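Archive entry: two folds, one per protein. Generate the first.
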Amino acid sequence: MRLLLKALALGCALSLAGASHAAEKRIGVTAPLDGPLSVLAQQMRDGAALATQASNAELVVIDDGCSEEGGLSAARQLVARQVQAVVGFLCTEAIEAALPVLTEAGIPVITSGVRSNGLTDRHTRTGWLVWRIAPSADAELAAVGNILIPLWRGELFAIVDDGTIHGRELAESLRLAAELAGLQPVFIDTFRPQSDNQVGLVGRLRRSGATHVFVGGDRDDIAIIARDAEGLDYGLTIAGGETLRSAGDLPLAPGTLMIAVPEWADMLDEDAMERFTAAEIVPEGYVVPTYAATEVALKALGTAEAGGTVSDALARGRFETMLGPIAFDEKGDLTENPFRLLRFDGERFLPFE
């Protein structure tokens, strides 16, 4: 908070000093500043403030209210403040309302919070100037097959899901990837979620000969499957999706695999961690991706100074950031899928070796 106040105070001082002393770069930060999402908005503000600390950029922080009306109002304020790029946004309603106004003004947006596929899938039709550090909703589906098929090619694996839309999508994505790779799961099934036990499912898995299983389900169901497999003295490697990171009532078994974006702090080197420590900012939630989005915005602004637009720079550039090199595809999504395979060590998920 102290760092953010300093950054905002500096921005105000520069604005009052007159046009000849104005900041060369002006970055908008948009998020729901009040209400239940304000904690996440503060993470975005902290990340952007730290990223601009060593530059002459001014931060313009605007509340979008996480609503269509708020997003439209925020866009108009950002245009009036003559920002050159915008980072942030948590809510689909707000960013979709803001983008037509910002695009018309030639102001690109780099979101660190909105994952909905439609945001970038409509890029060609809408012409919206939007890029994102946040992975798309499809990124998890693609990662499941891309990661597990090479790893389990020589294993007897099964695929089960809990019948929910998301669980079934994950399972189907892996099944299709296996089919394309010429592989056949030894067992496919749908189980009843939120049951006290999954002994019947585990028994069917053991009879199929499966040594590995991907579960499209939530954290507690996966914990129960692992518990019941251990109770039957059945050695079973279990993998799941990002839901394993959610809070649960039951302990996860050590060795459980998760396909997810690693914790941001685990992706930072020692120098980057020292920056956060010195600023008294915990690199959690949206702090780090918004820092990276702001880094990209500043570098794109620098490229545009030599000729071209900021949007051209974003579309064509490759930017070195705290998270490593970042580039975008033709839709504005990350060219490299950030999902990785992680393994639970009994306390936390760490990169799978």
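Generate the second and append.
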Amino acid sequence: MTETIPVTDPRVARAVELVNREAELLDRTEYHEWEKLFSEDGIYVIPIDRETDDFAGSLNMVYDDARMRQMRVARMTEGYALAAVDSARTVRTVSRFVPESVSDEEVVLRSAQILVAYKRGNHDLWAADLVHRIRFSPEGPEGDRIALKVVRLVNSDEAVPAAGFLL
């Protein structure tokens, strides 16, 4: 039997706090601050195959390292880009936190995300299972970083419309 890791573990609570801060930044479209939450080697991925863990060898909707995240944030915030000008307003809830592994260096955390996007009089619902690998900083929580974020959309194997926001 696998040992259950309580969400009350202070390391898990620290990771949950970072995931909640990330959700807040995304809903406020503070993309430059969001980008700073990632470690230099961090990966942001939205796979098409919900079962894969081989992100580098699979087709993904998004597979961003630091350089690609910077480019994505620039498209969302600079100049005239349809994604930025016609972006939706979002409110997301991240819940059902389940610690997968915990150490003094990092926590791997699974959760669920429900996102409501409002654009041009329409509401769209986006649902996903998330995985965050949070790397702890010896300097404390302000230095903690996302080393991996995986967004597994419930409908990833079907046609997904252009979002105009970050998941």
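Annotation attached to the second fold: The helical segments are 10-27, 31-36, 66-77, 82-85. The domain at 10-153 is CATH 3.10.450.50 (Nuclear Transport Factor 2; Chain: A,).
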